Protein: Gamma-glutamyl-gamma-aminobutyraldehyde dehydrogenase
Amino acid sequence: MERHGEELALLETLDTGKPIRHSLRDDIPGAARAIRWYAEAADKVYGEVAPTGRANWR
Structure:
C-alpha cells in the first residue's frame, strides 16, 4: 500500500469524491497501519476466543 499510495489515494478519491489530500493524508496511511497491525497480530493468536453474546453488548 505504501509503495502505491498515490495511486490508491487517487482511486479512493475517484470512488468517494473526497479531496485527494484526505486520501493521501488519512485513508491510505491509516489502512496501511491497520493491515500492518493485523499482520503482526496473526502470530499472536493462541486459540483463545473472546466471549461474545448479548451479555457483552453495550
Observations:
- Residues 20-41 form the longest helix (22 residues).
- Helices lie at 5-16, 20-41.
- The chain has a mean pLDDT of 90.
